[in-house]
Structure prediction request, 369 residues.
Amino acid sequence: MNTIKNFFWWCAGVHKETLQKYPEEHSKYFSIGATIFFTGLFAALAGGYALYFIFSGSDFAVFYAALFGLIWGLAIFNMDRYIVLSIDKSKSNYKQFLQALPRIILAVIIGIVISRPLELKIFDKEIREHLRTEYLIKQQATIDTLNSTFENKYQIEYTQLNKFKTEADSLDVSIKDDRQKLNHEIFGTKTAETSGVMGYGPFAKRKEEFLNKQEIYLDSLRSKIQKKETELFERKEKEGLLDTKILSDAALDSVVNIAGFSDRNTALSKLHLNPDGSSNDSTKYAVIFIACLFIFFECLPVFVKLMSGKDSYDIETAKQRTIHSYESTSDIDIEKNALDQLTEKRTEMSVRRRTNQLEKEYSENEDIT
Prediction:
């Protein structure tokens, strides 16, 4: 237990020997240290998870995610620790808030950044379904575009084909109608266009001959349609249009599994939109509240320090800081006074050194002469 306590005290950046004098403050700084530690741990997990998506599919995805997560977590941990240490509780609340304001702004930005990967994991099932739908729509749009381009390219052939089909459909309806009239004529059914006399007479014979010719012509039209469709099908096959098909469930699952961070992030942004274009407010607010929760959690170490009052440990450290500052300043004055006291002695030594130098130079000149 002492090891854990000492570790969290270190996370809080306290002076252990000083804190041990005030047992009533032990739990407070234990909690502050734990908050700083778990914020860094949480940032490491979020950062690593985000990078895992970036390198998804790579053999080293786990390694890169672990390395970046560790670096990111340590950076956040160190920054939180420094900010908490730098807040001077001897100053007014306003000045303390100004000290912490840059960290709070940064915490908001970091909270938004690290909340996104975890939101992607929380809404993973919904995102997968959205991606499946999006990919199917894109695939169908691609196929439609290719078919439209192909039809424009062979517009003359398609015009002929549609003409043959229209003529064949119209002729088929006409033949059926005439065949019914022929039956009425043969069986003696009285209508505006039949005689009502039962039997296979000259009119019925001419009508049947005409229908036989029409059916032969209809068969030739159908033969032309089939030939034209076969030609267009072979051209589609040659140009690779038949290779582009709607993804199967297995292929679609495979594509969704390797979807990148950008696609997942876009899907999460559109998750609150229903197929009819209306907005699902419950999903929209859920994403916002989760982001706010992470932002608050990221700001928590600073808030904890700001909310805590000035305690015995703060007073003692402020006192030690004042003493050390005064001691450093006093050392400067002492050194100055010592130099002043040694001025006469240093002057005497300097005169002696220069005298010796002049005597040496004079002696050398005498020898030259």
The CA atoms of residues 123 and 241 lie 36 Å apart. The first helix runs from residue 2 to 12.
